[in-house]
Amino acid sequence: MNRLIPIAVALLIGIGGGAFYLSQGSEPAVAQTSVETPDASEMDTSGVQEMILGDAESPITMIEYASFTCPHCASFHENTYPNLKADYIDTGKVKFVFREVYFDRYGLWASMIARCGGQERFFGITDLLMKSQSEWARGDDPVEIADAIRKIGRLAGLQDEALQSCLQDEDNAKTLVAWYQTNAAKDDVTGTPSFVINGTKYSNMSYGDMKAILDGLL
């Protein structure tokens, strides 16, 4: 499990130190900007869309807290999530909610790209980001990482103009960070992946252990 770095530090990396949104063409790939660290308690996050799969009337609601740059999250989505989806989400037993955690600016950028496609494309883009995480999230060059994330967006059918609009939306970035802060505090999320199943928090686990918990609630 990836442990969460302190929220204030996460914000400094993601926003407060500048360089959090992107530009294209002859401009630097990562534009420099100075943004005040948002106070989650003062931000209106009601417009942030919950990304949900499954039947709204399912007997079980399961929230996954994950970071797009967390290796354990990528492993969960490669090895466990397909079984969870087939056995519980697609069969109407689980309503699945995906909530992003931001360790760093790269995870925030990836989230902004995934959300750029709306509910319809979010989970498909998330799958692409998780499967290729080792290829785009382990570098040291923000320009290369930004380009790799944009490429994933294009693979999902997003146009360059839409990608740039999403990545340069400063207000949305600050709102997402505040939304993450509020959710993490409410559900006492201290690492990723974490799961809240019908109100009870669990850390990362095997599919067998997860299946036992879910079956016990049905």
Can you tell me about this structure?
This protein has 218 residues and is of the alpha+beta class. The protein has one domain: Glutaredoxin. It is built from ten helices and nine strands. The strands form three sheets. A five-stranded mixed beta sheet has the order 4-6-5-8-9, with helices on both faces. Strand 8 (194-197) and strand 9 form a beta hairpin. The protein is globular, with a radius of gyration of 17 Å. It holds the Pfam family Thioredoxin_4. InterPro entries: Thioredoxin-like_fold, Thioredoxin-like_sf, Thioredoxin_domain. Belongs to the thioredoxin family. DsbA subfamily. It comes from Cognatishimia maritima. Keywords: Disulfide bond, Isomerase, Oxidoreductase, Redox-active center, Signal.
Give the helices and strands, then pairings.
Elements: E1 2-3, H1 7-16, E2 21-22, E3 30-31, E4 51-53, E5 60-66, H2 71-79, H3 81-89, E6 94-100, H4 105-116, H5 118-131, H6 133-136, H7 142-155, H8 160-167, H9 170-186, E7 191-192, E8 194-197, E9 200-203, H10 207-217
Parallel strand pairs: 5-6
Antiparallel strand pairs: 1-7, 2-3, 4-6, 5-8, 8-9
Helix pairs in contact: 4-5, 4-7, 4-8
Helical residue percent band: 40-55%
Task: Report the CATH architecture.
Answer: 3-Layer(aba) Sandwich
Instruction: Tell how many strands the DSSP assignment holds.
Output: 9
What fold name stands as the CATH topology? Answer: Glutaredoxin
Radius of gyration: 17 Å
Strand order of the largest sheet: 4-6-5-8-9
Strand content: 15-25%
What assembly state would you assign to the polypeptide chains in this entry? single chain
From the helix content, strand content and strand pairing, which structural class follows? alpha+beta
Amino-to-carboxy terminus distance: 27 Å
Q: CATH homologous superfamily - what is it?
A: Glutaredoxin
**Domains, number:** 1
CATH class: Alpha Beta
Largest sheet: 5 strands, mixed
- From the spread of the alpha carbons, the general shape counts as globular
- What is the average per-residue confidence, as pLDDT, rounded to a whole number? 84
How many DSSP H or I helices?
A: 10
Uncertain segments: 4-36
Order of helices and strands: EHEEEEHHEHHHHHHEEEH
Protein name: Protein-disulfide isomerase
Function: May be required for disulfide bond formation in some proteins.
Domain Thioredoxin: 31-218
Family: Belongs to the thioredoxin family. DsbA subfamily.
